[in-house]
């Protein structure tokens, strides 16, 4: 059947099979809806006063920054066959630490204080990530239990840190991280893009990516091939914690307030969704950072669109959950088999028992 | 020569390994150890509370402990079924939120309250069924499937309302929280009971019967021991696993009814973190997180330990209530580690 | 032993021209099989002959592509274990499939509990369990005791009791004796005979020839998924049986034979690896071993003899409980694969699917995995280095198709095995341990891998070669370590006169009480002469 297909059809088929193809289509559709509502939606203008780019697209990209951070971390964790449910709570802890520090420092213009707050936030992310990593790799607890404990205890910790208050602080340099502009572009976007590229390069240029995939696909074979699972898992969970810490800074710096019950709330849902949209299987193994970026952008676009259209945003989490379920179904062996049988009989992959003992 | 003797003394093919009496009993009942630990902790907490704050061992405190934790007991029972098979259900807290918000809104909209109560329970069953189907027929990992249900239920609850919804004062559902005095003690020190507590007790009794007196219950344990073996033994693994999630969902629905009746209102953020409480109660009560061993009654003790912990924290006043989740999480981790230790001991 | 009951005219199970295919493999090709009530019937064949597949077809685990299964004269489509049990077919596996979190009685009665007005009546259930156990001579067991307190052998008998509670007329015993000692085997056989005399049809699968001849009345032989014949045990001499099982495909290796003979006493140097009392509880008794450069050492023994277990300790795939390992005379710690790899040891597991290839990675990624792991993730191989490795080993090992970007799962078993060999060779090992590298692959690939092994030894690599095909071990090895019951029982310097039969005899005779095995004595009183 495939031989008779024409060249364009084949190209189309290849495109269709790109894991995040539908993510891009969805972004385009959402933007189209917005354009229909307001033809000038996509317009990007330059603010004559300071040369900064202004527009809805810029807003979407800015909103995508924290999601990008946690989604990238989540992607690596999921690739190892685990999950990190604690990212949202790590965000609020980091945000709380930064706000409390800046509030106590009371130095509204100190770059040093901003830097210290940033590093402190990241350090707390790293510590909580390390706790996850130890529980998963050394203690051998299931990832979802370990990170669920941090998910719930983390928010408690944030409340303890701020004594239950929604601490606010003022520090211009810190605020600049989320709201400032550099060469006409939002700083937060540049920052996020840099970090994503750095992580991407680190993972794909070193052998980290290959090893993460190997332990996610087949832990036993990977172990016998000499791969150190324990230290890799530690690395990945700490990385996820650090990225969540940075996301926490992004989320709190934009309003210079940490809302202990809302900052980062349910953002693990967004992170998981972004990863799944990006074509990474929740069962672990092959991961796709590019796809995850598309997924994060889609979620930001969706959130902004919902607000723009004036739909009650309370419907979005339920909608996102349904998308996750549908994508999980598409990843399941049973559904795939249905597709496969229709397309090409005989490519059936043998089940585990094939080798007669 | 001595080596030869010992060789001859090897146990023959059809005899069990011999060990000393107490050692053997302990080994045979290692599974009970965590439950005993939980019971001890419970007693210790009572003693400590009595000494430190007083008025713990009195009818009103005991009554309040039962009334305020009836929903948690019901949840823990549901989770015990799931965890016994080696699965997990993270959706229970969110299901309660959705079920109770929907229930209050429908009641206030003038629906027949009894019908609404049934509906609230069935909402739970439906979520459980969906989780079960995803897990059993589409090979979705239990935590992923129930996590998705958690987000879905929470999202649906937020769609219905984001503010506290008050149950009308005259609603018969509130009747489930009516306090009946069993013993009229001096001043306010009465032993009281509510229909909600009775529901919890009935749930516990039915669960004990199901788990220990039916083939379904034995299959639950067998699956937790080894799903592969259970399949090869020809047990109905598929339907049992499906039922387990339906039970957990249904009991979340029941818990929603009991909780809403007591509180008289419902909100979309009700039940955040209750899945952790329920898991902790189950694990503290001696149910292995890997499945296959545990008791419903243990989970009841676990739930009461958590309830008593809240009482003590409130009485103390020095501990911030925000730390509760941290303490619960810590306790859960300690007990999981204890389980690991026991499991590796048993494996020798 | 009582005389076999003459078969009743109607077989209880009849499988007619059964075929089952997996992609690229015809696991069963028109196989016939009959089982009569009151007989013990053995299914014989080498690894990969199709025994497991046939059993799985009969227990409803695999759907058959072609053919017919008759149970009690009626055609049945078996769709699962529960279905097979309804048809009266129960299976007891080597790794006992019971639930060790439950008690003995619960396991026996699971799914068949006696029910009363208040649910399960435990008193009656336990009584029924005791009855069932008593019938197999296990009446002294307390049904309320946890199953985990029983030895594996007794658990097996409990599993059989369970099958009898399910009123099974057909009992399949899949490798039941692999991990039992002699006494335990006798206990099991007593039970089997008792059941046979009650008219139960028993299908017995075992690698142990002695046991097969001791217990079975009739046998069916399979080879490469094909039916070779059905024989009365007493009419089929052992040699004839082995010939039927192995077939005649050994000629292609004739050239290797002489080549190995030249290198008999090549090594006079210090051993590259020396193990002293290396052991692990429950898998291999403390063992001494020396491995030399340029030498192929074969580990011979039956499945579960300790051959794989010993190999795993040498690499660190499992952690040893006791003993020391000296590498080039220096005491080293090999407790994890990473450490093994660091000491230039490489180990290819017998379990190619689960412990060898990473199915979803490409051929290229599978090839470089071990080298990369050895370097650590921070020092990635350059693209040029990777290409060099890939080009070299795809060509040298003649991997087909030579497309490095294809997922390895799409390659045939033989080519997967070659890629794995390449993965380990790329780490430049000084000691290469190959566990069943030729199992389940086609004849061409097999010969190529054997040639590689010989060539490697010529280049000075120490090779440990494990195979359940004794012929292959004998032809390839300079020295053969014979294992049985989790311990080394002999070391044989290869040379003219050493045959697979000799190894078989060594293993067989060793089972006889001490004193009778003078010909091939234990390593304790016989040093390897060099």
The H-level CATH homologous superfamily of the largest domain in chain C, spelled out, is P-loop containing nucleotide triphosphate hydrolases
Radius of gyration of chain C: 25 Å
Output the number of helix runs of chain C: 18
Extract low-pLDDT stretches of chain C: 249-259, 511-530
User: Residue-averaged pLDDT of chain B, rounded?
Assistant: 86
Considering DSSP H and I runs of 4 or more, what fraction of the residues of chain B is helical? 55-70%
How do the strands and helices of this protein lay out in sequence?
The complex is a heterotrimer of chains A (about 350), B (about 350) and C (about 525).
Chain A: H1 7-17, H2 21-37, E1 44-46, E2 53-55, H3 56-79, H4 87-105, H5 111-138, H6 143-162, H7 172-179, E3 181-182, E4 185-186, H8 187-205, H9 208-217, H10 219-224, H11 229-253, H12 267-277, H13 289-308, H14 316-331, H15 333-343
Antiparallel strand pairs in A: 1-2, 3-4
Helix pairs in contact in A: 2-13, 3-8, 3-11, 3-12, 3-13, 4-5, 4-6, 4-11, 5-6, 5-11, 7-8, 7-11, 12-13, 12-14
Chain B: H1 2-8, H2 21-28, H3 33-52, H4 59-84, H5 92-108, H6 113-138, H7 142-160, E1 165-166, E2 180-183, E3 191-193, H8 195-213, H9 215-225, H10 227-232, H11 237-263, E4 265-266, H12 274-284, H13 296-316, H14 323-347
Antiparallel strand pairs in B: 1-4, 2-3
Chain C: E1 13-22, E2 25-35, E3 40-44, H1 51-58, E4 66-71, E5 74-75, H2 81-86, E6 89-92, H3 104-109, E7 115-116, E8 119-120, H4 122-135, H5 152-165, E9 170-174, H6 182-197, E10 201-205, H7 209-215, E11 218-223, E12 226-232, H8 238-246, H9 254-262, E13 273-280, E14 284-291, E15 296-300, H10 307-315, E16 322-327, E17 330-332, H11 337-342, E18 345-348, H12 352-356, H13 363-375, H14 383-396, H15 413-425, E19 431-435, H16 443-458, E20 462-466, H17 470-476, E21 479-484, E22 487-493, H18 500-510
Parallel strand pairs in C: 3-10, 3-11, 6-9, 9-10, 15-20, 15-21, 18-19, 19-20
Antiparallel strand pairs in C: 1-2, 1-4, 4-5, 7-8, 11-12, 13-14, 13-16, 16-17, 21-22
Helix pairs in contact in C: 4-5, 5-6, 13-14, 13-15, 15-16
Written account of the structure:
The complex is a heterotrimer of chains A (357), B (348) and C (530). With 357 residues, chain A is mainly alpha-helical. In chain A, 69% of the residues lie in helices and 3% in strands. Chain A has one domain. Chain A is built from 15 helices and 4 strands. In chain A, the strands form 2 sheets. A two-stranded antiparallel sheet of chain A has the order 1-2. Chain A has a two-stranded antiparallel ribbon with strand order 3-4. In chain A, helix 3 (56-79) runs parallel beside helix 8 (187-205), helix 4 (87-105) packs antiparallel against helix 5 and helix 5 runs antiparallel to helix 6 (143-162). In chain A, 54% of the residues are buried. Chain B has 348 residues and is mainly alpha-helical. Chain B has a single domain (34-347), classed as ABC transporter involved in vitamin B12 uptake, BtuC (Orthogonal Bundle), CATH 1.10.3470. Chain B contains 14 helices and 4 strands. Chain B has helices at 2-8, 21-28, 33-52, 59-84, 92-108, 113-138, 142-160, 195-213, 215-225, 227-232, 237-263, 274-284, 296-316, 323-347; strands at 165-166, 180-183, 191-193, 265-266. In chain B, 52% of the residues are buried. Chain C is globular. Helices cover 35% and strands 23% of the residues of chain C. Chain C has helices spanning 51-58, 81-86, 104-109, 122-135, 152-165, 182-197, 209-215, 238-246, 254-262, 307-315, 337-342, 352-356, 363-375, 383-396, 413-425, 443-458, 470-476, 500-510, and strands at residues 13-22, 25-35, 40-44, 66-71, 74-75, 89-92, 115-116, 119-120, 170-174, 201-205, 218-223, 226-232, 273-280, 284-291, 296-300, 322-327, 330-332, 345-348, 431-435, 462-466, 479-484, 487-493. In chain C, strand 16 (322-327) and strand 17 form a beta hairpin. Chain C has a 6-stranded mixed beta sheet with strand order 6-9-10-3-11-12, sandwiched between helices. A 6-stranded mixed beta sheet of chain C has the order 18-19-20-15-21-22, sandwiched between helices. In chain C, strands 2-1-4-5 form a 4-stranded antiparallel beta sheet, with helices on one face.
